Amino acid sequence: MNHWLVKSEPFKYSWTKFLKDGNAVWDGVRNYQARNNLKAMKTDDLVLFYHSNEGMEVVGVAKVVKEFYQDPTTDNPNWVVVELAPVEALQKPVSLAEIKSHPQLSEIALVRQGRLSVMPLRDFEFDIILTLSRL
DNA sequence: GCCAACGTTGGC
DNA sequence: GCCAACGTTGGC
Hints:
- This protein is an alpha+beta fold and about 140 residues long.
- It has helices at about 15-20, 30-40, 95-100, 110, 125-130, and strands at about 5-10, 25, 45-50, 55-70, 80-95, 120.
- It has five helices and six strands.
């Protein structure tokens, strides 16, 4: 199983709204690197949900419930969506500052490539973030 | 609100 | 195909 992290501005789509909706079509991705990551997601892969701009913290775990298909919000066949469903909220959100200060998390795209909105995580990176959320 | 980082566009 | 100009994202 692969692990991922997606960003959302809580202003536009928050974790709270996601919980209420029960699932989400992850549309609007217009960046090739992020698109490639969406295409690589498999059903039941786990995805961390990060609040960018406001909050700046990982707030929950989601899973892939439907693999990629053409983004219905555009006619351009370059762009795709996946569908995600909430798994659980983190006991305690893990802030960007905590992630940045953790030596074993210094390689992740959240730190190295700030603008990427869909990124892969290595298994141990995913595990560390979950561990931090339980401290 | 500012600005750095980075992606995209378009003129040549 | 290069590169300057411009737009967007997102941390601070």
